[in-house]
Specification:
The complex is a heterodimer. By secondary structure, chain A is mainly α. Chain A is built from 14 helices and no strands. Helices cover about 75% and strands about 0% of the residues of chain A. Chain B is about 75% helix and about 0% strand. Classes of the chains: A mainly alpha, B mainly alpha.
Chain lengths: ~280, ~290
């Protein structure tokens, strides 16, 4: 019995490893290929059959893409949008979530519903109307136009509300007895206690902004304002033949998020799973 | 009283932004669909004419068909992510390494994912070469230029990027299941697969609800990968509703007509969300509120 069970276990493990290794090649393969192509010379790239290792090795594509395609500008644009966008997301989430979690006021339930309803209703049409609204506000082709319509993250509000709800009541009461003002309680007592959740939300939003495509594409009309994600697709069209440059650009665009992910894994996964658990 | 003041102050700006950029567009989008509007000339009220024209518009039905077809990613994605979640939850070596590797596509921007796969799929590219070496094909396939398969290729890319995300959620779900349930079932003599189908899977139901709703909405909203890989081609074979709405509104400046299409499509999306609710009952936004 125990012997057959062990064999059974070994077979199971072999199957598990086989499947996982297959999927790992499937997910990691394209990244390897990207890095490889970006390090190749022009003669290698259209070689058939394709080579598996980049040889001769060269960094000319990186130098080239940085110089020729103004990659620095797109980098800067991405950082501006992701930076200010995330800042707004976090700040508004803290401000909106705190009253919903901890304060007593008329209309508390209503405010919560106002945040809930849009999560249920599809927002297909908002694109067009928001474009027209931005046009009226003269915010087309500005970073503000990219950021403001998405500066309130409903997911963020829920995440922060949950975090604020988790703080014991005593803390707040003690501060009130000591005569602390409401703003002081929020900023100096309650908010420092939710810092881990703030980190989770911030990282999550940086990734979301970095990935943004459709909205910046619509709002921004001059290509030198494009963030990296949009610029790469745009450049791909313009530099069809020079794919090595695009790939080098892609690697450069991936590096920041991969680094962020490797160092902040814990927070990212927490954000994803908490979003689901408490939904 | 002081609490009320702070509450209103704090809520004012976020709510204002929500009203202008979420609530107003939902209402005004429907209104806009009753007009003929191209930004340059003045709005012209046409009543329900946009809707009746849509009924005879082959591009509309083509895009609707493609979007509905795109929903096929949902069950496949859920099946694969549950499978992988169970595997990376098993007692094996290097499981956190596997989790990490499978998760990396999730944090990679979609444009980069799409451009990478576009290059892999290109004629006489690496995929052609691999399949050719394995003697599975004789001629270049033209994965993205063949209208019969192009959409499925993009669906594959969507799944490739989403797999790790849903896997992580299911993993959290699996880890939340109390070991007692599983042990009890095993003691009662249940086989491993019986435990999985009769204990684990039912307990994962709220997660399956969440993930399938999320991925259904994402599938219906798919845009970036299509734009970056085919722009809706060849011959509109990969044009989904969001692509069509984009093309009509921002390329042809048919804002009213495009809004009408978006409005009809919103109803479809909403229907799928409700359907999911009915199918899974528990879980969902309501449990958040309680």
């Amino acid at each position: 019995m125990s012997k057959s069970k062990r064999i059974n276990d070994v077979t199971t493990k072999i199957v598990i490893y086989a499947v996982l290794i297959f999927f790992m090649f499937l997910t990691a393969g394209p990244f390897y290929w990207m890095a490889k192509t970006s390090l190749e010379t022009s003669t290698n790239i259209f070689k058939y059959p394709p080579s598996l290792v980049p040889w001769p090795l060269t960094f000319e594509n990186y130098v080239g893409v940085w110089k020729m395609l103004k990659l620095g500008t797109y980098y800067k644009n991405s950082f501006i949008i992701a930076g200010f966008g995330t800042l707004a997301n976090v700040l508004f989430a803290l401000m909106a979530a705190y009253p919903m979690a901890r304060l007593d006021f008329y209309g508390k339930r209503l405010s919560l519903f106002l945040v809930l309803i849009p999560m249920m209703i599809p927002v297909q049409g908002t694109l067009i109307v928001n474009y027209l609204t931005l046009r009226k506000l003269h915010l087309l082709n500005t970073y503000a136009g990219v950021i403001i319509p998405q500066s309130v993250s409903l997911f963020g509000i829920f995440l922060m509300r949950q975090a604020y709800l988790g703080i014991p009541r005593d803390l707040e009461d003690a501060a009130r007895i000591d005569g602390a003002g409401e703003f002081y309680i929020w900023w100096r007592i309650m908010t420092p206690l939710v810092t881990p959740t703030i980190a989770t939300l911030a990282i999550f939003q940086v990734l979301t902004w970095w990935d943004q495509f459709l909205w910046p594409l619509i709002v921004l009309s001059s290509s030198d304002k494009y963030p990296l994600a949009v610029a790469l697709v745009y450049l791909q069209g313009a530099f069809q033949t020079n794919f090595r440059y695009t790939v080098a650009g892609m690697v450069l665009a991936v590096i920041p998020v991969i680094l962020l992910f490797l160092f902040m894994q814990r927070y990212i996964i927490k954000g994803i799973t908490e979003g689901a658990l408490k939904y | 009283m002081r609490q009320t003041l702070l509450a209103y102050t704090f809520l004012a700006i976020p709510l204002l932004i929500m009203i202008v950029f979420i609530y107003y567009p939902i209402g005004f989008g429907v209104n806009l669909s009753l007009y003929k509007y191209d930004i340059i000339s003045t709005k012209e009220f046409v009543g329900l004419k946009n809707f009746s024209s849509l009924m005879h518009d082959k591009y509309f039905w083509n895009a609707m068909k493609n979007s509905i077809l795109y929903l096929a990613v949902v069950p496949v994605l859920q099946f694969l992510s549950i499978l992988l979640a169970v595997m990376v939850n098993a007692d094996i070596k290097a499981r956190s390494f596997f989790r990490l590797m499978l998760f990396i596509p999730v944090v990679t921007p979609m444009t980069i994912v799409a451009l990478t796969w576009r290059w892999i799929f290109r004629e006489r590219g690496i995929l052609d070469y691999m399949l050719f070496s394995l003697k599975l094909i004789d001629d270049p396939v033209g994965y993205l230029s063949n209208p019969k398969i192009a959409l499925f290729m993009i669906m594959f890319v969507t799944m490739w990027k989403g797999l790790g995300y849903y896997m992580m959620i299911y993993l959290a779900g699996l880890q939340n299941i109390s070991q007692d349930y599983l042990d009890a079932a095993r003691i009662d003599g249940a086989k491993r697969w019986q435990v999985f189908f009769h204990v684990t899977l039912p307990l994962l139901k709220p997660y399956i609800f969440f993930c399938s709703t999320m991925s259904a909405i994402a599938a219906l909203n798919v845009f970036t990968e299509i734009y970056a890989m085919t722009r809706g081609g060849p011959n509109y074979a990969t044009e989904t509703m969001p692509m069509l709405v984009y093309r009509w509104a921002f390329r042809y400046l048919k804002f009213g007509y495009s809004s009408a299409a978006a409005t009809l499509f919103s109803i479809v999306v909403f229907a799928f969300t409700l359907l999911n609710f009915r199918l899974f009952r528990e879980g969902g936004v309501r449990s958040y509120y309680e």
